[in-house]
């Protein structure tokens, strides 16, 4: 029961979500939610009967629906110059796609090439988002070189509200760092209280295997996985863990694809290494047989680390259920089949890596995780929202439903049944890796800081609503 006037002289927009079943990482109950301006101000039973809403209050009936905190995708690429091409989405397209899929916050990887000036790159990435995003966003700063000026630049980046870094142990000659650079990055991160996200694959072995396979005439997309076997990923995780253990830094392994890599992370954690694990939705739903499809169709499914043998899926779901895997992201990296993936027709090493999925993460995770009983609703919310907020300094403004939190809410209809098709998608890419995949449940209404951005599953909102979320270091 609420007391007093919830809107004392208040002219801010108000939103009342009535009678939904609120589900967070650790609670489930039926209640109404009042939002004033950008914020959740009250939660309780029958709030509408207790107070008179001011004129202009929007009332949404959520009877029979779940109400989740806005989902957070902690690993996306939007502006991405990579492998001789440029990823297809802009913030205009990617943020709408995110929202219709229930994602209200994106965290994008800033990926300068080794030759780029890092501060200029950071400003460039920010300029691509500013005034163009319909959802909120933040960045991880890619450290793709470490020289005498890097410390000063990274301090500035952190002071600007970006206290998370990204390193690549893969992509030799492009984004990859050497061991000295890795050590210096982790040492600095430890000093600054910054978390370091890392792509873990041994670059040297990948380069050798690629050369060997091509020399044997093995040029198709089906050879991408053999060029980056599970042992190469596991070695990358072990390598990162050794450096994290010695420096005391907090690390986060992105896009974990296989049992062997997960085992290395579990072993590192049991030794006291501060290591968290992310997987991404393609590994939970697709397997390497997709990359083996004939007539170069497999190129649509080339990403790194690669899609694996189907046996790994059960291990990943289990890791998710037990919490060894903290988060499910996408690693959204959209390249068209025509003209972009096709650049690798005669050489799989030239296929731009990435599977577009920012639009479908939440629906696929619910359908394949919750609806099948592999994970419960709380783990679903935790992995797709709350853990990302906690790891990256956004909690409790994001990732929770509580008075004082941002009014980022997803009203989810569990009775909806549909199918993913390219024809319906918002992502600016010419194929869907999930074409024809059925989904159970849908993000029906989605709000960003109190503004309804999605109604009846369609983007109807303010294309410029999103803003950059400035964060504080929290891993000291
Ligand atoms: O294949 C992938 N993962 N593409 C995006 C770049 C990266 O490695 O995250
Ligand atoms: Zn990566
Ligand atoms: Zn990535």
What can be said about this structure in brief?
This protein has 476 residues and is α/β, with parallel strands linked by helices. 29% of the residues lie in helices and 23% in strands. Strands 1, 2, 3, 4, 5, 16, 17, 18 and 19 form a nine-stranded mixed β-sheet that branches. It has an eight-stranded parallel β-sheet with strand order 6-9-10-11-12-13-14-15. A two-stranded antiparallel sheet has the order 7-8.
Task: Furnish the topology, listing elements before pairings.
Elements: E1 14-23, E2 28-36, E3 39-44, H1 47-50, E4 58-61, E5 66-69, E6 71-76, E7 81-82, E8 85-86, H2 91-100, E9 103-110, H3 118-129, E10 136-142, H4 150-159, E11 164-168, H5 179-192, E12 195-199, H6 203-215, H7 224-227, H8 230-247, E13 250-253, H9 259-270, E14 275-280, H10 281-285, H11 311-322, E15 327-329, H12 361-370, H13 377-391, E16 409-419, E17 438-448, E18 451-455, E19 458-459
Parallel strand pairs: 1-4, 1-5, 6-9, 9-10, 10-11, 11-12, 12-13, 13-14, 14-15
Antiparallel strand pairs: 1-2, 2-3, 5-16, 7-8, 16-17, 17-18, 18-19
Helix pairs in contact: 5-8, 8-9
One zinc ion binds next to loops.
């Amino acid at each position: 029961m609420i007391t007093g006037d919830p809107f004392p002289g208040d002219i801010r927009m108000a939103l009342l979500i009535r009678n939904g079943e609120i589900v967070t990482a650790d609670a489930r109950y039926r209640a109404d939610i009042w939002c004033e301006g950008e914020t959740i101000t009250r939660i309780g039973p029958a709030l509408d009967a207790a107070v008179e809403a001011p004129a202009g209050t929007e009332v949404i009936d959520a009877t029979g629906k779940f109400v989740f905190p806005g989902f957070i995708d902690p690993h996306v690429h939007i502006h991405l110059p990579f492998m001789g091409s440029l990823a297809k989405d802009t913030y205009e397209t990617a943020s709408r796609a995110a929202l219709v899929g229930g994602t209200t916050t994106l965290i994008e990887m800033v990926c300068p090439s080794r030759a780029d000036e890092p501060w200029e790159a950071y400003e460039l990435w920010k300029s691509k988002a500013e005034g163009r995003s319909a959802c909120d966003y933040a960045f991880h700063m890619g450290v793709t070189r470490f020289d005498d000026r890097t410390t000063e630049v990274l301090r500035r980046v952190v002071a600007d509200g970006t206290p998370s870094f990204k390193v690549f142990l893969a992509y030799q000659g492009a984004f990859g760092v050497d061991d000295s650079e890795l050590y210096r990055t982790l040492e600095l991160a430890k000093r600054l209280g910054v978390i370091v996200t890392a792509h873990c694959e041994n670059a040297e072995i990948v380069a050798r295997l690629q050369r060997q396979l091509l020399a044997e005439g093995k040029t198709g997309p089906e050879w991408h996985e053999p060029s980056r076997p599970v042992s190469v990923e596991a070695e990358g995780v072990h390598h990162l863990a050794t450096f994290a253990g010695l420096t005391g830094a907090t690390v986060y392994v992105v896009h974990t694809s296989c049992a062997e890599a997960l085992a290395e992370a579990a072993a590192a954690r049991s030794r006291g290494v501060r290591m968290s694990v992310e997987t991404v939705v393609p590994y939970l739903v697709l397997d390497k047989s997709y990359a083996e499809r004939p007539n170069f169709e497999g190129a649509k499914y080339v990403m790194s680390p690669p899609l694996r043998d189907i046996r790994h899926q059960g291990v990943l779901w289990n890791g998710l259920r037990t919490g060894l895997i903290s988060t499910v992201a996408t690693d959204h990296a959209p390249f068209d089949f025509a003209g972009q993936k096709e650049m690798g027709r005669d050489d799989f090493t030239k296929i731009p890596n990435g599977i577009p999925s920012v639009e479908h993460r939440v629906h696929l995770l619910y359908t394949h995780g919750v609806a099948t009983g592999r994970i419960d609703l709380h783990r679903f919310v935790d992995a797709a929202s709350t853990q990302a907020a906690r790891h990256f300094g956004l909690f409790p403004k994001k990732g929770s439903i509580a008075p004082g939190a941002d009014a980022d809410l997803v009203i989810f209809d569990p009775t909806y049944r549909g199918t993913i098709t390219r024809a319906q998608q918002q992502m600016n890419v010419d194929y869907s890796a999930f074409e024809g995949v059925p989904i159970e449940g849908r993000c029906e209404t989605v709000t960003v800081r109190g503004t309804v951005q999605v109604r009846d599953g369609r983007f109807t909102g303010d294309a410029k609503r999103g803003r950059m979320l400035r964060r504080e270091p929290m891993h000291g």
